[in-house]
Design goal:
The protein is an alpha+beta fold. It has 2 domains: 91 residues, no CATH class; 73 residues, Double Stranded RNA Binding Domain (2-Layer Sandwich). It is built from 6 helices and 5 strands. It is elongated and about 75 Å long.
């Protein structure tokens, strides 16, 4: 098997392997570019957040302690499972956002009043798509979160290899080089213009 033959097979099977990722990243870009579409679709009078409970809760940790530990305690108290982030917008409030691909819960702890409020977000396809598109990183605790991040890294590497194998195939076809240069030049040129102008 020659390298050119191997490269064609690599390009073909990488394209098939990466197909669902190309599809989901392409589709999930739509609500990023057109957020008003989602707002129009879900203008049905149903609120985005529904109160699950609001009750007194005595935080068993110092309120100036580790926010990650506090976030885990509050999420556990609310029975909210998923990846979470804890934030403190001011000294009197601790917010925790817990989410999976399919649902999200926001928690708010009022420090002086010692009250915990939990709200669940309604399911929306536009938010589901943007959540998939933006999710990544190794900052979360769960092994599934790390596995997702590893797969995203592998997919990104696959994109680069797929591009390189395509460029190699193009260069092996001298009759296509002229149109290839024009296409590549137009693509890179338009990207540079937007990069410098925006």
């Amino acid at each position: 098997m020659t390298f050119s033959h191997f490269n064609r097979r690599l390009h073909l099977y990488l394209g098939l392997t990466l197909l669902p990722w190309f599809f989901i990243y392409g589709l999930s870009s739509v609500p990023f570019s057109h957020p008003s579409w989602g707002q129009k679709i879900y203008q049905d009078g149903v609120p985005n957040w529904k109160l699950r409970f609001e009750r007194t809760y005595e935080l068993p940790l110092p309120v100036d302690g580790d926010l990650k530990q506090i976030g885990a305690l509050l999420a556990n108290e609310a029975g909210a499972n998923g990846t979470y982030g804890a934030y403190r917008p001011n000294p009197n409030r601790i917010n925790v956002y817990v989410h999976t691909f399919w649902n999200a819960t926001q928690l708010s702890y009022d420090v002086p009043a010692k009250k915990l409020k939990a709200e669940d977000r309604r399911f929306r396809w536009d938010q589901w798509l943007t959540g998939i598109h933006a999710r990544g990183g190794f900052q979360h605790d769960g092994w599934l979160d790390d596995a997702w991040a590893v797969v995203v890294d592998v997919v990104n590497t696959g994109f680069l290899v797929w591009i390189a194998s395509g460029l190699y195939m193009w260069w092996q076809l001298p009759q296509c080089r002229k149109w290839g240069w024009l296409t590549l030049g137009a693509s890179v040129g338009s990207f540079v213009i937007f990069l410098l102008a925006l």
